Amino acid sequence: MTRMSTSRPYHHGDLRAELLRSAERTLREKGAGALSLRELARDIGVSHAAPGRHFKDKQSLLDALALDGYERMNQSLAAAGLRAGQSFEERMTALARAYLGFAVDNPELLELMFARKHDPESSAQLAGAVDRSLGSITRLIADAQDQGEIVQGDPERITTVAAASLHGLAALIAGCALDADEVLAGLDEHVHLLLHGLKPR
User: Which band of pLDDT confidence, cut at 50, 70 and 90, is reported for residue 13?
Assistant: First the structure.
């Protein structure tokens, strides 16, 4: 029988945070299919049962990883949207830059975030984080409508158009169809076209 003193430890400092860090590393290097609670436990040197204290199964780990991604992205979006004294176009460009910056730095995580968002088994907590990410754009649009800076209409529908445009850029960058540096360099013009359309003025 193995003595307790030579077995792998059950506790590991902030085990939950360490599991998430290790899971994100695996996600970047090998993809979501390679994620396993048992493998993560082995990688960080704890007993195979230890992760079960924080994640009941792989699905709850994926939800937690996606939630962590949304929380980090939402912090970036909130910081970008706080700048006072800017026009709507400047604020929208700042939000777009924050979103694309996150997308360029975290393509695998962003893919997981969107996959978990559409999974019916995902947690209510994750659904709330998704709402907050879109809410930052919707609030900006509703604000601009109140100030007479943009057309009236359903702010959520306008948000969908803006979000689809930005996520489309992110997907094209992730698929290597567009160069990230070129997209970020031309982002002001992209947002300008998004807001003003293609009709001659």
Answer: low
Which DSSP helix (H) or strand (E) runs through 154?
none
Dihedral-angle region of residue 36 (phi above 0 means left; psi in -120 to 50 means alpha; beta otherwise): beta
C-alpha torsion sign, points 99, 112, 36, 58: positive
- Take residue 77 and report the two structure tokens written for it: 């979006």
Amino acid at residue number 51: P
- CB count, 10 Å around CB of 74? 18
Contact 8, 46 (CB under 8 A): yes
By three-state DSSP, how is residue 60 classified? helix
Confidence of residue 10 (pLDDT cuts 50, 70, 90): very low
Distance, CA of 7 to CA of 30 (rounded, Å): 28
Q: Can you say how many angstroms the Cα of residue 63 is from the centroid of all Cα atoms in its chain?
A: 12
Number of Cα atoms under 13 Å in the Cβ half of residue 179: 4
Burial classification of residue 189, based on how many CB atoms lie within 10 Å of its CB (0-12 exposed, 13-18 middle, 19 or more buried): exposed
Quick one: the chain helix, strand, coil %, rounded to 5?
A: 75, 0, 25
Average pLDDT over residues 36-55: 88
What is the pLDDT at residue 194? 92
Rounding to the nearest 10 degrees, give the CA dihedral for residues 193, 98, 136, 174.
Answer: 80
Average pLDDT over residues 100-122: 89
* H runs (alpha helix) in 82-179: 88-105, 107-117, 124-146, 155-174
